[in-house]
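FAQ

Q: What does a record look like?
A: Structure on top, sequence underneath. For example:
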């Protein structure tokens, strides 16, 4: 009975660990992409403002 219990704990720990590592890597990737997307959006805004300024 105890062996089954320990096996269940081990399986639960391994699945939780893999889930956390997957979530962590996705979060890190998303964080990097978020920084890059913020830079791209700021660059586009500056570009649009400069284009509008030149038209006048």
């Amino acid at each position: 009975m105890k062996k089954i219990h320990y096996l269940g704990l081990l399986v639960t720990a391994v699945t939780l660990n893999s889930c956390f590592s997957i979530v962590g890597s996705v979060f890190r990737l998303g964080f990097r992409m978020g920084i890059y997307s913020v830079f791209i959006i700021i660059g586009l805004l500056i570009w649009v403002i400069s284009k509008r300024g030149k038209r006048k």
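Q: Is there anything notable about this one?
A: The chain has one domain: 1-56.
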